[in-house]
Amino acid sequence: MTDDGRRTSPVEHGFPHLETVRAAIRALFRALTADGVRAYATSLDPAEAAFGPDEDLHLGAHRVASAVVRALRLPDARMVVAFRPMRDAATVELAAGPEYFVEVDDRFRVHRRDLAAALAHEAAHVLLHRLGLRFPTTADDEVLTDTAAAFLGAGWLLLDAYREDALTHQKLGYLTPEEFGYVLARRARLFGEDPSPWFTSPRAYEAYVRGRALADREWRRAPLAGAGRTERLRYARARRAGAAPAHGAYRFGRGGDGEVRVSFPCPVCGQWLRVPTGGGALRARCGLCRTVLECDP
After folding, report:
1. Measured between alpha carbons, how far is 188 from 31 in angstroms, rounded to an integer?
2. CB 85: neighbour CB atoms within 10 A?
3. Burial (Cβ within 10 Å: 0-12, 13-18, ≥19) of residue 6
4. Is residue 145 pLDDT above 80, yes or no?
5. pLDDT class for 8, splitting at 50, 70, 90?
6. What is the pLDDT of residue 226?
7. Is the pTM of this model over 0.90?
8. Cα 21 from Cα 112, distance rounded (Å)
9. How far is CA 235 from CA 186, 223, 245, 279, in A?
10. CA–CA separation, 109 vs 91, rounded Å?
C-alpha cells in the first residue's frame, strides 16, 4: 500500500508532470486566445463515443473518429483509421491534411469501449500540429497533447479508460490518472461542467476527485479572496516579511514607485498576475484568459 492508502501499482500516480501540465494550459490559451478556448465549451458526448454491440468495427471506428474530430473543432480533418499489432495504443501520421491516417493497436478490435480514448489523443496531436504548438522534448509534447485533449473536451475518455484491480490494470495517455483529473477539474470550473456522470470506471472517478481537490485548493490560495483563515494568516506574515514561501504560490516585489506588489498565477490559465498589496479587496483581470478574480492582497 502507498502512504495515501492506494495499492502499489505499475500505473504511475500523483502529480509528477504538474508544472508541464500548467505550462500546457497556459500555452493553449496563448495559441487559441481566450475566445478560442471558450469555443470548446461542449465536451464530447458519451453517446458519440460508445460502440453499439452489433456495430461494424470499421464503420464504427470512423464514426467515433468523426465525433472526436468535431469535439476538437477540426471539421475539415478526416481521420482514416486502420488496425494493426502495435506496442503503443495508436499513432497518427501528421501530414498537411485534410486526411490524417491513424493506426490503432489490434487490441481495440475487442476492447472497443476505449477506442474513442485512443483516438482523442491522436486527434489532439492533429490539432496541435495545425496550431504549430509543440514543446521541446517528446515527453513534454505528449503531456501537452494529453492536456489539450482533456482541457478542450475530449480527453475525459482517456481518464475513463483507466481501470485497475488486483489482477489487471490499464491506463492510456501520458498523464497520471490524478493529473487527468486535475485538468478536467480546471476545465469543469471554467465551463461550469461536471464530468462525474460520464465515468464508467470507479477508479477513474476516484482519480478525478483527487485531481479536483488540488485544482480547488488553487482557488483557495492567497492572495485570492477565497483563501481560508490559515492561508490568510500565512500570507500576511509573508507579506510583512516581504518573502514568499517555498511553495511558490506567490512572490513579492516592488514596482517603480517603490510600492510592494504580489505576483501569483491565474488559477484558470496560469498566467502570472501582479497587483499592489495592503490596499484591501480588489478585482484583478487576467490579460490572457480575461477571468476577473476576487483578491485580497
Report:
1. 20
2. 7
3. middle
4. yes
5. low
6. 92
7. yes
8. 28
9. 24, 7, 9, 14
10. 16
- d(Cα 89, Cα 44) in Å, to the nearest integer? 20
Would the CA dihedral through 218, 172, 38, 205 be positive or negative? negative
The three-class DSSP label of residue 164 is strand
**148, 158 in Cβ contact below 8 A?**
no
User: How far is residue 34's CA from residue 291's CA, in Å, rounded to a whole number?
Assistant: 9
Whether the Cβ atoms of residue 208 and residue 195 lie closer than 8 Å to each other: yes
The answer to whether 64 and 116 are in contact (CB under 8 A) is yes
* CA–CA distances in Å: residue 119 to residues 20, 72, 140: 22, 11, 19
**Measured between alpha carbons, how far is 10 from 275 in angstroms, rounded to an integer?**
44
- Residue 129's pLDDT band, with cuts at 50, 70 and 90, is very high
| Residue 257 cell numbers, joined | 514607485
What is the predicted pLDDT for the residue at 160? 96
Total Cβ atoms within 10 A of residue 45: 12
Q: How far apart are CA 232 and CA 220, in angstroms?
A: 10
Look-up of cell digits 469543469: 188
Q: Rounding to the nearest 10 degrees, give the CA dihedral for residues 190, 180, 101, 50.
A: -80
The Cβ of residue 197 has, within 10 Å, a number of other Cβ atoms equal to: 8
Q: What stretches of 5-137 show up as alpha helix (H) in DSSP?
A: 18-38, 46-49, 57-71, 115-131
Measured at the CA of 31, the angle between CA 178 and CA 150, to 5 degrees, comes to 25
Helices 138-151 and 115-131 pack at an angle, to 10 degrees, of 110
DSSP 109: G
- 242 by DSSP, 3-state: which? coil
As beta bridge partners, residue 261 has 253, 276
pLDDT tens digits along 51-88: 888 899 999 999 999 999 999 999 777 889 999 999 98
> What is the Cα–Cα distance from 110 to 117, expressed in whole angstroms?
14
Straight-line distance from the first to the last Cα atom of the chain, in angstroms, rounded to the nearest whole number: 41
